[in-house]
Amino acid sequence: NAGVTQTPKFQVLKTGQSMTLQCAQDMNHEYMSWYRQDPGMGLRLIHYSVGAGITDQGEVPNGYNVSRSTTEDFPLRLLSAAPSQTSVYFCASSSVEQGISPLHFGNGTRLTVT
Amino acid sequence: QKEVEQDPGPLSVPEGAIVSLNCTYSNSAFQYFMWYRQYSRKGPELLMYTYSSGNKEDGRFTAQVDKSSKYISLFIRDSQPSDSATYLCAMNQAGFGGYQKVTFGIGTKLQVIP
């Protein structure tokens, strides 16, 4: 039972480079999201999706793109990396049920932009 | 002012101690209250959740919500070295199922010393 899988685990980029952070889940969850975690700032929502073909912006969407072509995958694209995007990125998924459904997180991608 | 305030610690306690972790919040619309535990280099995992006010107990862990004071707590009894982690409070509004538009605290780092 893999849960939420994120790749790569670590990445170093130069300013201006682009890259895609991968996220896949095998729990058939409708909801998927991307967070970044920075010291003193906590987890902040970047983008989220409530199903294939549906995405929306979170709190800090600038500089990032997402798409959701399948239920399982939710990649995050950095268009032109900036040092301010140095962070730990977490993908999280959840089922859409009545009541409370917890977020299931991956183990993160640690990104450094130089 | 942040919507959710949490003391980052670190908090260092001897094994067997009772630990109290707390968060305050400003948004009176919050209805779901959660505690996530995050081990080093891992993603957060849901520890406990409560809906609206009251207490909830699960083994050595007790979650309390005081909506009149906008204050939530997590108590850990008989703390163990394996409890050493960062504890994140999290909350969102009714209708968002505990997974959408979740606001996280910055986390309190706990170390339990054998």
Order of helices and strands of chain A: EEEEEEEEEEE
Helix content of chain A: under 10%
Per DSSP E runs of 2 or more residues, the count of β-strands of chain B stands at 11
**Gyration radius of chain B, in Å:** 13 Å
Number of helical regions of chain A = 0
Q: Which word captures the global form of chain B?
A: globular
Notes on the structure:
The complex is a heterodimer of chains A (114) and B (114). By secondary structure, chain A is mostly beta strands. Helices cover 0% and strands 51% of the residues of chain A. In chain A, the strands form two sheets. In chain A, strands 2, 4, 5, 6, 9, 10 and 11 form a seven-stranded mixed β-sheet that branches. In chain A, strands 1-3-8-7 form a four-stranded antiparallel β-sheet, with no helix packed on it. In chain A, β5 and β6 form a beta hairpin. Chain B is an all-beta fold and 114 residues long. Helix content of chain B is 0%, strand content 56%. Chain B is globular. Chains A and B meet through β5 and β9 of A and β4 and β5 of B.
Task: Report a brief summary of the structure.
Chain A has about 110 residues and is mainly β. Helix content of chain A is about 0%, strand content about 50%.
For the structure shown, list the relevant keywords.
heterodimer; A: 114 residues; mainly beta; seven-stranded mixed sheet; four-stranded antiparallel sheet; 11 strands; 0% helix; B: 114 residues; six-stranded mixed sheet; five-stranded antiparallel sheet; globular
